[in-house]
Amino acid sequence: MKFFRGRGSVIVAAVVAFAVALPAAPPVAAGSVDDARREVERIVDELEQLAADAEILAEDWSEAVHDLGQLEIDVAAAEQRVAAKEAELDRLRGDLSEVAVRSFTGSGTDVLGPLFSTADQAGEGLRRDQYSRVALDVGTTTSDDLDELISDLEDEKAALAKKQEEVKATKALIEQRQQQTEAKTAEYEALKVDAEKRYADAVAAEEQRRAEAAYRALQAQAEQQAAAAAAAQAQANSGSSSSSGGSSSSGGSSSSGGSSSASSGGSSSSGGSSGGGGQSPVSVQAPSSLAGKAIQVAQNQLGKPYRFATAGPNTFDCSGLMYYSWGKAGVRLPRVSRAQAAALPHVSSSQAQPGDLVFFHSPVSHVGMYLGGGQMIHAPYTGAVVSIKSVNWNRVTAIGRPG
After folding, report:
1. What domains sit in the chain, N to C, each tagged with a CATH number?
2. Whole-angstrom Cα distance, residue 339 to residue 328?
3. Which of 401, 291, 301, 386 is nearest to 2 (CA)?
4. What is the pTM of this model?
5. Contact (CB, 8 A) for 321 and 301
6. Residues of 302-326 as b/e, b for ≥16 C-beta within 10 angstroms?
7. pLDDT tens readout for residues 3-57
8. Whole-angstrom Cα distance, residue 370 to residue 375?
């Protein structure tokens, strides 16, 4: 998830943008240009690190909120168990008292005193012993049964108290993480505003240049793997042909394998309406019907606002968009991005295909859905909307494949 302003989108090519960003006159010496370029690179480095720090803190925050929800469910269940045990104990005490009255009325024996004494008059242990003696006399239960019930109640109360303490601690953690996230976000915002004032398009262009360079490297890796696979297949076909001696099978069509584009046999998805926000769905050749459905659902959310700790249908955080989109395709994912990354089988970046989830940073703190061609759809940060952007492969730490 992201809690900060997004990095710049594609504006112009890096060289042109850099030239625009620098003063038009007087002419700038080569050394000054190099210094400015290094300063832009330093600023982008710092922005990326601040962004990563903010995302990690925000994901910690999101996890704590999720944990709090589960703890509150656990507390409610523990309270119900305690209430049930107390009701059961009250019922047993009532039954024993009634039996005792019937059994000992007129006997002259003061066996009922401890049954009706307050805690100040007689301790719980004394009353328990007297209940047990009465029960044994009339054959309705055993002392072990009564002891077990009281012990169970005490255990349930202890468990409830522990859960309540965990709730208190988690609420404190949520408040701490929120403050840390907002502080880091403010630091990022201040640097971003200052950088945009001084260098404007140059910063955005440098960020885009890095993303494109990483994607080109990814493409080259995929092409090398495809070429190696094709060569291996050709060699295997050649050996098979020479050994058979007769049939002249040429090996059929070659398979590129492991490319980041979609495989054949999948479904094409361009989503439905964009939901506003200035972007339209892109055409995607999905590798499967499930992936196609998830991509379509995700693209139908384009333009919908980001909102922390939500999973649709009108607002989303980053993991909420993945949870919602794949859920509509019939695949239930964990709710937060770190749990999603831990639960899914991983593939290499060169094997990424549309529908895969692309995770960022270590520990994981942001996620988007890969669309192919170096692009992903994601819910970026507070104040922004669901959108499509280039994948910054340098920041990718895992790729998970649902379905």
Report:
1. 31-102+142-218 (1.10.287), 289-400 (3.90.1720.10)
2. 19
3. 386
4. 0.55
5. yes
6. bbbbbebbbbbeebbbbbbbbbbbb
7. 443 433 332 233 333 333 433 334 444 455 567 678 878 887 888 888 788 788 8
8. 6
Exposure of 95 by Cβ count < 10 A (0-12 exposed, 13-18 middle, 19+ buried)?
middle
Other beta carbons less than 10 A from residue 200's beta carbon: 15
CB atoms within 10 A of CB 235: 10
The per-residue pLDDT for range 284-337, each reduced to its tens digit, is: 999 999 999 999 999 999 999 998 889 999 999 999 999 999 999 999 999 999
Residue 93, SS3 per DSSP: helix
- CA 134/CA 204 separation, integer angstroms: 84
> What is the 8-class DSSP label of residue 109?
-
**Chain CA centroid to CA 222, Å:** 28
As given in the structure block, the two tokens for residue 277 are: 């926000």
Q: What is the 3-state secondary structure (H, E, C) of 246-301?
A: CCCCCCCCCCCCCCCCCCCCCEEECCCCCCCCCCCCCCEEECCHHHHHHHHHHHHC
Count of beta carbons in the 10 Å neighbourhood of residue 392? 21
Strand order in the sheet with 366-372: 387-390, 375-378, 366-372, 357-360, 396-400
| Closest alpha carbon to 384 in 279, 277, 300 | 277
Question: Which residue spans within 293-386 are E strands per DSSP?
Answer: 357-360, 366-372, 375-378
d(CA 74, CA 159): 10
